[in-house]
Each structure stands twice: as C-alpha cells, then as structure tokens.
Amino acid sequence: MASTNVTSACPAAMKASSNGAFQHESPLDFALPLIILQICLVVVFTRLLAYLLKPLKQPRVIAEIIGGILLGPTALGRSKVYIDTIFPEKSLTVLDTLANIGLLFFLFLVGLELDFAAIRKTGKKSLLIALAGISLPFILGVGTSFVLSSTISKGVHQLPFIVFMGVALSITAFPVLARILAELKLLTTDIGRMAMSAAGVNDIAAWILLALAIALSGNDSSPLVPLWVLLSGSGFVIFAVLAIRPLLGYMAKRCPEGEPVKELYVCVTLTLVLAASFVTDTIGIHALFGAFVVGIVTPKEGPFCRILTEKIEDLVSGLLLPLYFASSGLKTDVTTIRGAQSWGLLLLVILTTCFGKIGGTVVASMLCKVPFREAMSLGVLMNTKGLVELIVLNIGKDRKVLNDQAFAILVLMALVTTFITTPLLMAIYKPARRGAPYKHRTIQRKDHDSELRILACFHSTRNIPTLINMIESSRGTGQRGRLCVYAMHLMELSERSSAIAMVHKARLNGLPAWNKVERSTDQMVIAFEAYQHLRAVAVRPMTAISDLSSIHEDICTSAHQKRVAMILLPFHKHQRVDGAMESIGHAFHEVNKRVLQRAPCSVGILVDRGLGGTSHVVASEVDYKIVVPFFGGLDDREALAYGMKMVEHPGISLTILKFVAGKGTLKRFDKGEDDEKEKKVKEIDEEFLRELMNDPRGNESLSYEERVVESKEDVKATLKATSKCNLFIVGRNAAVASLVNSTDCPELGPVGGLLSSSEFTTTASVLVVQGYDPAADTRPLIEEDVDYEGSSRHISGSIV
C-alpha cells in the first residue's frame, strides 16, 4: 500500500513527442513540443527586454536575468495555470539538462577567450588590483554570511555557506565586463586594459574558490572527502595541461590559415568538452569546470580557436544559454523577501559587495599611483556581476547551502550591481577625445607637394578590389605629394564572443585596431598588405569594431587623429548582375549620413560598379576615363581637385564637363537675397578653374568642355552621353536642382542621386564628394589641443 502511495505521488514521465492535436493529444503534455515552446518563449521575451534596455546601454545579460525572474514565480509564475501549462514541474528536468548543456559550451567559449599567456604577462599593477578586488569583498562576504546565518539562513552548514558568500560577493564577470567596455569604447583605453587584465585574474581565482566551495558542500560528513575532491580536481587540471592541450595543439597546427578546419577536429574537440565535463562531475566539482578547463588549454594561436568559436557561439548564446537564465528565474521568488529585515539584508548585501569591490580596487589602484577618477572607474567596473555569479548561486541552491530567500537576495544583488555599472561609469569617467589641430582637411590645397592622407573604409571583401584600384588611381606618379591610406575595416560589434576577441587587437585610446606588430590573419588586411609593393603608397590596415549606431564616431575620430584629408565610404548599395542597385542594410546607410554630418574633413561616398573589375589592376595596365561634371560650389571644386590628383597617373584621362545655365534654370541661388552669395561663389569657381587650366599636372590627359543646358533633361542627356567612362566624380551639393523625381538617398545630392540610381544605365562607378566646410563643422567629435601629439606624427614605411 505504501508502494502505491509513493507511485501516485511521483509525476508520470513525459513521452518525447505527441501524435498531434487531431489525435486528441495536447502537445504540451509531451517533452519535445513543450521544450520547443519554452525555448521560443524565453528567447523572444529576453530579446524584447534587451531591445527595451538598449537605450540604457545595458548588457544583454541584464535582460536575460530580468526575463528569467519575470517568467518565474515572482511575476508570471504567480498564475497557477501559466506555470502548470508552460513550465510544469515534470518538464523542469529536461529544461535544466538542456540549459546546462548550453552552459557547458558557453563556459568552454569563456575559456577560449581567457588567454593564460596574456594573464601571465599581467603587470604587477593589474595583479595587485585584482587581488585587492577579490580579498576585501571576500572578507566582507564572510562577515555578511554570519549576519545571514543568524537571521534568514538558520541551521545552514556554516563553512560552505561562508565560502559561497565570499565567492558570490568577490566575483567579477569577465564576459560582461568586456561587453560594457566595448560598448562604451573603453576596451582599448588604459583603464580598459587594466580592468580586463584584473578581471582575467579575478575569473581564475573565482573558479578556484568555487571549486573549494563545492568540495566543502558535499553531503558526506567525512573531512577527507573535500580533500579528495580538491586533489582529484587538481589532478584533472594537470592531466588537461599534459594530455589534452598537446592533442588540441596537434589539431590546431594542422589547420593552416585560409583553409577550412576539418569536421573531425571540431567533433573531437566538442566531445572532449563533454568528456571533461563528465570527469569533473564524477569528481564532484561540477561538470562546468571540465568545459572551462578545456577552453583554457585550447591553443589560442592560429584560426582553430576562432573557427571553433564561430561554429558554436550563435547556437549556444542565442538559443541554449537563455534557458539557463529561465531555469534560474524559475528558482527565484522575489516575493520571499518580505518585511523590513529581509529588505534591510538585501541593502546590506548590495552595500557590502559595492564597498568591498570598489573600496578594495580604489585603494590598490591609488597605491599604484592611478588617479582617483580612474581608480573609481576601475572599482565600478570590477563590481560587475553576471552569468558566473548566477552559476555560483544556483550551485549553492542545488546543494542546499542557500535557501529560497538568501538565493533571491543574492540574485537581486547581482542584478543591481551590474545594472548600475554603466550609468555610474558614464558619470565618473568620460575621457575627452583629443587631437592636434591640422591644416590639410581637403584635397584642394595650395601645396601640392604635401602628403595626402585618405581614410578608406570597407565593409567586406566585395569593396576591396574597387577600393585598391581607387588607391592606385590616386597615387599619381609619386613625385608630387606622397599618398598615405588608412584602410579601415568596419565591423559591427555583435553579441558574439568573437567580436569581443577582435576588439582585443585594438591599441590606443579607444581607436580602431592597428595591425602593426603581429602579421594579421584577416584576409581583407592581407589584400592591402600585398598591395604595398607600390612604394609610393603607404597603406595602414585598421579595424573598427563598434555598434553601427556609433561607429561613425570611430571613423571621424580616427580621421582627425590621423589628419586625413578625405574619408572614403562605400555606398550602402551594390549593383546586382541585372544592373539594379541592392541595399546591404539600412544601418550602413545611416552610418554614411552621420559621417557626412560629423566629419572633420572632406568625405567621398563610392558607388561601386566594379572599377577595374573584380581584381587589382597593376599600375602598367591602368586605363581609366574619368568625368567630373562641374556645376559650381564648394563640393564640385573638391570633386575636381580629387580628379586633378588622379589625372597625375599616366593611365588616367580626365574630362571636366562644365555645365552653363542657358536661362538660369540651373541656378541654385535663385532668390534675390542670395544674389550676392551666388556671385561670390561664381567668382571662386572661375578663379579655381583658371588655376587648374594652368596646372601642368593634366597635360594631354586633361580635357575641358563647356555645355550650355536649359533644362534637367539636357543635363541628363549630357551625362548619359558620357556614361561610357569608368568613373564619375561629382560634388554632393552641386548647384543644380534635383535630377530625379524621388530618391531614397538624398545624401548623394542631385547629380549623385541620378548617377547612382537604377534608371541611369551605366557601368561607371560614382564618387560623390562633400568638401570640408569649417563653417558647418559646429559639433566636432574631437577636442583640439595644440599640445596633443598622440598619433599626429608623420607616418612612413610599411607594416610589419
């Protein structure tokens, strides 16, 4: 009879899949359709929260923690119908298992990010800051544990509780810290590098302390068991270094750059992660440690590590990891925090962890002669919690070290301390972007022998052939003014771990990465390095990784600090095989418009229709015909100045096509009040053209034509008659009315809008130029300082 009662109390095991609703079976009574629904609900809900929190610059982990809590008994879970339908108790084993599988591989990715070689090279300053940032909060956590054990956690096993509290208060979340630094463009500043180094040391120390806490929290009363667990764990780490690392190194060496990694190698590595997790779980220090250790011992050199990350991070971070936050949220009931005592304990825990982390870090930083503001910023950064914190708390709850109320208090502590990191940091530390004033902000200049610097941006390999051919065409003969090109790869800062790893290549003051010391493995960078055999051009590959809503700041800041005369941007559309223009994304369209508004120099937008074909054209084979339609105005003069620079190349011929209004229909300044301004612009234009006609650069390769036009149709017909050329260079704000009825690209201006539209049939590429106007530069991103040297030194030589 007793046996019957036990059987009836246990929920029946769920079958995997149903026969369908038409067979009168609810899919929610079966494991597979239910877990699918749970995944969809969790992912959609957390992504929606992340979108809502994005204006606050909060990392996605905040949305995932909040989402998990709201899906649990704190909010939606208060409805019995909801919890019994979507998250019934009999489904939680499947949910927890899948969530922990995702967590295993995520911690493998975290291990891949942590480079022990870099941590070993951590300076004494970062090491001291890390140790102080661990020690003081750990000690305060021990003190707090006595307060909690005498109030809401009575009867708890004291020793493991002390260690768990110390670990919970002393952790710094390495991945979350990296994300916050990257989004605030601080990852490559001095404070960012110091924080990352200290967080790396902190992460390793936290895992060691967590292993100790888990070993001490076993059910066996024998004091020898924790000792055996720790010794076995240490033996596993030694085995991983001596046996697993050489195996992974062997596979990494057999994966040369530019070739795909064998499927067998990926399969072996992922199986090793699972096998190592099984071993550490058997030892008794949790399966997560095995995955983390395999990630740490995986060689970081070469493409093997990067490709492993790319293959698994989207599935793990996008689908499986949010399940862990949901699983954690289902265990978190904030409503258990009742009364003044409980809320007072929550405040005590938050203040204790903030004081310990920030105070310890500030004291250590100031002992290392770090200024107070930077020391405070480091303290705030080191106070960041995240996923590892939740892992510690969940293990503590599973092992009965933490009860429901203590667990809820510590989860809220992690949420609050991480949430306040970004606003506090923005309030305390906002370094000014400084740069030296410079003279040559345009192509047009009196001194033609001065160095011409161009910042050429590109999104993908599609842009590179035309970009290199533009550089080749712009270099002239090398006898009059050297050409220096900064080739900047624009990359969106995604939620991927690999994006953060890429930012580690960056060097100075939050600026984009310089591939200067190590030879780059980026194929796009290699293309520019290969081009440098032309000694008249210095090409400096760079990488800007940022959110697309703010990447224009990186572009404009780099342009100022590198003292460039023109920024070249790729158009946000490319030409399809049928000739139609296809957009690569609205975000890149917005990037171009923001750069046009905030640029400290001239800007060119390149509409690529395959200038020179799909490969680099060697100097001896360059044979381009360039047309510059000239209507008048600042932008047209800058476009023509660039054309004159290009015609210095012996393989280029330039046609200047000056449009003259027959009946004033093309006059841009058609109001009486602007007559004086129009007259002044015309005088400047005429003087500029006279100087060009006397310029010896063009010689026989330069031709000048005037066309009298009386309507927009005349302008269109004239431009179509010259459409057999290779490149049009036009001013953005040409003195002419719009030549198309409607356009979704007003930033290209009247002429550029026509030449880049699908209705204008041509194979010629188009460069739309906006000349730098000091009067319009009212919101500079750079604070000019005559004493600032930074990166203003003359650059010579090629990249190593």
Structural write-up:
The protein is of the alpha/beta class and 800 residues long. It has 28 helices and 15 strands. The protein has an 11-stranded mixed β-sheet with strand order 4-5-3-2-6-9-14-13-10-11-12, with helices on both faces. It has a two-stranded parallel ribbon with strand order 1-15. Strand 13, helix 28 (749-755) and strand 14 form a beta-alpha-beta unit. The longest helix has 30 residues, at 224-253. InterPro entries: Cation/H_exchanger_TM, CHX17_2nd, CHX17_C, CPA2_transporter, Na+/solute_symporter_sf. Residues 626-772 form the Cation/H(+) antiporter C-terminal domain.
Short description:
The protein is of the alpha/beta class and 800 residues long.
Any chance you could write out the topology, listing elements then pairs?
Elements: H1 2-9, H2 31-53, H3 60-71, H4 80-86, H5 92-113, H6 116-120, H7 124-149, H8 158-170, H9 174-183, H10 190-216, H11 224-253, H12 263-283, H13 287-297, H14 303-331, H15 339-367, H16 372-382, H17 387-398, H18 404-419, H19 421-428, E1 434-435, E2 452-458, H20 464-474, E3 483-492, H21 497-503, E4 513-514, H22 523-531, E5 537-546, H23 551-561, E6 566-570, E7 573-575, E8 581-583, H24 586-598, E9 602-607, E10 624-630, H25 634-646, E11 652-661, H26 675-693, E12 702-709, H27 712-721, E13 727-731, H28 749-755, E14 765-770, E15 783-784
Parallel strand pairs: 1-15, 2-3, 2-6, 3-5, 6-9, 10-11, 10-13, 11-12, 13-14
Antiparallel strand pairs: 4-5, 7-8, 9-14
